[in-house]
């Protein structure tokens, strides 16, 4: 299990954050096989899904920044949690269109703002 990486001294949290991010990138890439990469990218960046896509991609990038450049393990874990929330929100918006978009995105943006100001 990926959670077992958390218990490796000194590098566990870093490895967890890296593999968690790579897993989410693989999940995004796997949906390209269902509809094709170009159609997937076009749908991801439609106006109704643009904010959710940007927040999700931002969480992926910020997790890797926290691990590699800032060397903040706690921040990496916070960004992993935000990644989970962003991916969940993105998938809800992607499948249910905009029925849940505004409350979900508003909460996620507030959490992201709080994490960046820690």
List the helices and strands and how they pair.
Elements: H1 12-35, H2 37-44, H3 50-68, H4 73-96, H5 101-116
Helix pairs in contact: 1-2, 1-3, 1-4, 3-4, 3-5, 4-5
Describe the 3D structure.
It is a multi-pass membrane protein. Keywords: Membrane, Protein transport, Transmembrane, Transmembrane helix, Transport. One of its GO terms (biological process) is vesicle-mediated transport. May be involved in fusion of retrograde transport vesicles derived from an endocytic compartment with the Golgi complex. It is found in: Membrane. The chain is mostly helical and 118 residues long. The chain has one domain. It is 77% helix and 0% strand. The protein is built from 5 helices and no strands. It has helices at residues 12-35, 37-44, 50-68, 73-96, 101-116. α1 (12-35) runs parallel beside α4. The chain starts with 11 loop residues before the first helix and ends with a helix. The model has no long low-confidence stretch (mean pLDDT 80).
